[in-house]
Structure formats: C-alpha cells, structure tokens
Amino acid sequence: MPPAPLVDVTGLATALKQFADDRNWEQFHSPKNLAMALSGEVGELTEIFQWMTEEASRGAARHPDTAQAVREELADVLMYLVRLASVLDVDLNAAAQQKLQRNGEKYPVEKARDTSKKYDQL
After folding, report:
1. Integer distance in angstroms from the first to the last C-alpha of the chain?
2. For the packed helices 92-106 and 67-88, what is the interaxial angle rounded to 10 degrees?
3. Whose CA, among 35, 44, 102, 111, lies 20 to 30 Å from 75?
4. Could you give the angle at the alpha carbon of 11 between the alpha carbons of 81 and 79, nearest 5°?
5. 22 pLDDT more than 90
6. Cellular component GO terms, alphabetically (predicted)?
7. Fold annotation for 10-88
C-alpha cells in the first residue's frame, strides 16, 4: 500500500489552470515567468516580517495588523508554486516525499538534533 500523500494540490492545480485558460494567460505562464512571480511573492511575504522581532513574527498570522496580509501572501506563494509545478509537470507530492527522505539522510536525528548547522558541518 503506497504511503498517504503528503501533498495533494490536484484541485488547486486544476482551478489555477482554468483561471489562466479563461484569461488566455497560458502564453505568459512560462516556467521563467512563474518562477520570477513566485520569487516576487516570497519577497512580499518576507517584507511583512522584515522588521519584526522574533516574538512578533510568531504571532503575525493572528495579529490584526498583519494577519490578512500573511494569509494573502502565503496563498500567492502557494498558487504560484502549484502553477509552476503544473506547467513543469512536476508531481509536488512525489518531490516532497523524495526531498523529505533525502533531508532525513542528510540530517540524521542523532547528529542534527538541537543544532542549526548545515548537513556538511554536522
């Protein structure tokens, strides 16, 4: 029996493709353009947190001044990521499962617990 999916974005990918098709935006959705748009949205998300303290950043999704912006920018990041994966025909679930396994090999619990060192410094 295959493992339960970690990520299922099938419905979102379909909705985003339809959204683009309805507007004839497929012509603009090259991997390059989508990656650049994704990067821009990550920048907008980062900007929300830029001058916050560590403590304030932990509550940003609940604070009235930032909660809506955090939700919207996270949604933008998710949607561009899913659209990019769809255009590239990348199975995000398979990619996430493989990467999680590789990270487990690079960061074994007994070496990585309680440290932020990169795998090549463990």
Report:
1. 35
2. 100
3. 102
4. 20
5. yes
6. cytosol
7. Helix Hairpins (1.10.287)
The pTM score is 0.91
Q: Is the pLDDT of residue 3 over 90?
A: no
Query: Which long-range contacts does 25-29 make (Cβ < 8 Å, 24+ apart)?
Result: 29/83, 29/87
Q: Which residue has the tokens 């930032």?
A: 66
CB 122 within 8 A of CB 115: yes
Inform me whether the pLDDT recorded for 29 exceeds 90.
yes
Tell me the pLDDT tens digit for each residue of 70-113.
999 999 999 999 999 999 999 999 999 999 999 999 999 999 99
Residues across the chain: 122
3 state SS of 110: helix
Cα–Cα distance list, 94 to 9, 36, 74, 90 (Å): 12, 23, 22, 8
Q: Kind and range of the H or E element at 19?
A: helix 10-22
Eight-state DSSP code of residue 100 = H
